[in-house]
Amino acid sequence: MGAFLDKPKTEKETNTGEGNGLRFGVASMQGWRVEMEDAHTAKIGLNDQLQDWSFFGVFDGHAGENVSKYCAENLHEFIIKNENFKKAVKDRSPSPDLNLLEQGIVDGFLELDDAMRSLPNWCSGEDKSGSTAVTLLVTPSYFIFANCGDSRGILCHNGEVLYNTIDHKPSHTNEKDRIERAGGSVMIQRINGALAVSRALGDFEYKLDQNLGPKCQLVSPEPEVYFQSRGESDEFVVLACDGIWDVMANCEVASFVRSRLQLTDDLSKICCELLDTCLTKGSRDNMSVIIVSLPGSPKVSEEAIKNEEKVEAEIEKKLTALVEQENDLTHVDVSFAMASLSAEEIEGLPPGGGIESKASVIRTILDRLIEQKNKERGSTYDESSKIDED
What we know:
Blueprint: E1 4-19, E2 22-33, E3 38-44, E4 54-62, H1 66-80, H2 83-89, H3 98-117, H4 120-123, E5 130-138, E6 142-148, E7 152-157, E8 160-164, H5 173-181, E9 186-187, E10 190-191, E11 201-202, E12 224-229, E13 234-240, H6 242-245, H7 250-261, H8 267-280, E14 287-293, H9 302-325, H10 334-342, H11 359-389
Helix pairs in contact: 1-3, 2-3, 7-8, 9-11
């Protein structure tokens, strides 16, 4: 289940890029976990034939980082080299055979899993790591989601979440049925009381029955694939591991990202703000997120920027009053301040993020106010000492 640090590691790995009419930002953070087991990939242009196709993926590792890293580096290659996939895109038709394309993607996942299993670390049984995967292929005509496990993707369109992938959990009826047919059980919502996801790449100790195909094992590497036609009102896609979704709902993430896009076009900055917000909301997991901005995405707005400035001015006003009324400042920290502010009405806080999304702003203001207050108290003490001496 993973061990935790005494304090979270908040340094972030970020990346940005653009092409094919898309822009993307990436951020990942270790957080409270002892190890960083997430990985991600973002590729604009897949090969000479598919320069106008793009591929994105978030891979949430467990029991080690090796499977997630291998998937990030290789999954797209297994997909585009699959024979069914190549047949589907051979003629570059704007309306390819979607059944064939889906089969190619599913086969790519299964072939990667099988190939990985034969590599030395996994073949020996030494490496017991596994990874979920949520991926997105963007073609000129379609968004193609593939999900295996409980990482999740959402597509936002015209102000709403148009589509979200479905998590694969052992307690879900169809997943539980497969697990029990394979000789396992679901206890405390985990396979045999241990693994919290029912589909994943790797995890070969749960794929040992020689009489069953790969899709029928205790843990299945089979993804669910979904096609969505592209439209002018498509705004953005968010792919993220469960460290995000554990503390924020689909609509909250969508609303938060949409509001931030009206303040900045720096997608990696928005990704970092999302990670910090989730950390403040209580996420204890590694966190990784990719935001893919589409032509219909909200644009930076002067009005939104002014409203944000008003919100932060109101926060500063309330923090000033808080510091002024406290005689003992030793206990006045960010947590104390946020608890106090959460009991008050502050209009215009980022939707979905709330006061938690302003933790860094609160910290900056609070540090300045406390330093100023302490200096004032020091000056008062110095003056009173001089009077006594006289």
